[in-house]
Amino acid sequence: MSDHMLTGQQEAEENFRTLLNNTSAAQAVSRVVEGTIGPKGLDVMLIDNLGGIAVSNDGLTILKLMEVNHPVARMIISAVKSQQSEVGDGTTTTAILTAALIAEGSSRILKGVPVSSLLEGINKGIREAMRLIDNATFHISSLNHKYLFDTALIAGRGCEDVARLVVDAASLIGIDKLVNPGYKLADAVSSCEAAADSVFNGIIINREPINMHILPDFISNPVIMVINDALGPGKVDNDALKTDSGFKHYMKSRDLYERNLNKIRDAGVNLVVVDRGIDDMAEEFFIRSGIAAIQRVSAREINDLCRHTGAQKLKRSALDENVDQVKQYAGCAEQVWFDKKHRQVLVYDGRGENLATILIGASTREATEERERIAQDAAAAVQAAVQDGVVAGGGTLEVWLAERLQELADSEDGMSSYGISSVSEALKRPFLCMAANAGLNPLKKLGEVVASQKETGNSSMSLDYSSGELVDAFDKGIIDPAGVKINALKTAGEVAASVLRINMIIKMQTDPGKPDNTLMN
């Protein structure tokens, strides 16, 4: 700390400076992504020191890649990452809501509202908003429901082809898997530059066989063996090789290894997938036998392959068993296709668990990566819609919630009403950003939507950002998953509360043995 104690006035000024500094950092983060939200949002280009570029409309991607130093800015980015991890969509909304809530709360603190009372009101407002969202949720019971495609289309930034692929993938795997918390449809998205978009029951192995040049384009009814080990003979120490007994042991090991390779062929296997390396002897054997062999395959792809084909992972030592036993470890599929252009292997219609793959392609690497992100957002939104239902999108629900919370604040006694009002004002921010991005007058359109919702008593009265006309969000297909809204609001409230409670930032010791805490302005 400094050598003298701060006076009461100095401490108050320091607290206010900290609050304003933190608020400015939060708003700076929000401004970066505000221009991307909504159907008329634009992209952001990020450039690194070496001239590499990334172009994206995705909030998380932008915030992860940009250079950030301020601790509050990093807290908001962590919140955005949490939103992505939990529900896979709504990252931009989370950043905007968090920054807006910090700004609204900060404004009221500077006017003299006690922090404790403000946070009490914020918590009360968020709890009431979450209750109202739950009441306004429409639950989907069929994967053929129109709202599911609408959800995919909104989250997929209007890309109809991507939305259709995602919905087809959801139908392929079924509702039971979608409601399973351990399954993520977004993980089914795979991208490849210049590839044709498709969805199929199967998996992609992003490695080419070591003997690709001699293989046909496809194998029908393949027998697939998965080896969770390095493929090679047992190792013998170099010093031991110099002895007669050591050399004999080495030759015996090689003979056993060669017999085991023959067992793979005799078991009818025509695709071998190994998670580590394949030695020269095995490579030559597979080439002679016409058996496709892929080495150094990722653990995730191996696990998916086993689930889809029914194959069991085996260690190299398991090959010591007889041929019939070895064959029992193998899996089967309807077809394996060797994509020699893109250097990958596609496995179709395995006899095990259905696994959807959504293959996304585009003409350039940057465009492919962005379309992959779009598909992942759409997939996450569809799954969230199935799990938790849907609500009116396009900022519509937030506007309706804002009015309800303001009514609650007006009826509330005490200073906590200011916290509820803070939540109310923050909830309007996504709508205002979307209207501005569409080239409309944000405040005018906000007033029109509020008036229409009051007049009709319909919480889904919304704005068509293309025409500027008032529409019913559900009729127009402006749909968002309820879970995305709830998690974004909850996360924004938690981070805003943490930031608003900070009254001083102090630099930590670089060396615990040498106290050197200094105030940071």
Describe the structure in brief:
The chain starts with 7 loop residues before the first helix and ends in a 21-residue tail after the last helix.
What does this structure look like?
The chain is of the alpha/beta class and 521 residues long. It folds into three domains: 8-138 and 391-500, GROEL, domain 1, CATH 1.10.560; 146-197 and 362-388, 2-Layer Sandwich (GROEL, domain 2); 203-339, GroEL (3-Layer(bba) Sandwich). It has 19 helices and 16 strands. The chain has helices spanning 8-34, 59-65, 71-87, 91-110, 115-135, 146-155, 160-173, 175-178, 238-241, 244-266, 280-289, 299-309, 323-327, 365-388, 396-411, 416-437, 442-456, 473-476, 482-500; strands spanning 44-47, 53-56, 189-191, 198-205, 218-220, 223-227, 271-274, 292-294, 313-314, 331-339, 344-350, 356-360, 390-392, 461-463, 470-472, 479-481. The radius of gyration is 29 Å and the shape is elongated.
Strand and helix map with partners:
Layout: H1 8-34, E1 44-47, E2 53-56, H2 59-65, H3 71-87, H4 91-110, H5 115-135, H6 146-155, H7 160-173, H8 175-178, E3 189-191, E4 198-205, E5 218-220, E6 223-227, H9 238-241, H10 244-266, E7 271-274, H11 280-289, E8 292-294, H12 299-309, E9 313-314, H13 323-327, E10 331-339, E11 344-350, E12 356-360, H14 365-388, E13 390-392, H15 396-411, H16 416-437, H17 442-456, E14 461-463, E15 470-472, H18 473-476, E16 479-481, H19 482-500
Parallel strand pairs: 3-12, 6-7, 6-9, 7-8
Antiparallel strand pairs: 1-2, 4-11, 4-12, 5-10, 6-10, 10-11, 13-16, 14-15
Helix pairs in contact: 1-3, 1-4, 2-3, 3-4, 3-19, 4-16, 4-19, 5-15, 5-16, 5-19, 6-7, 6-14, 7-14, 15-16, 15-17, 16-17
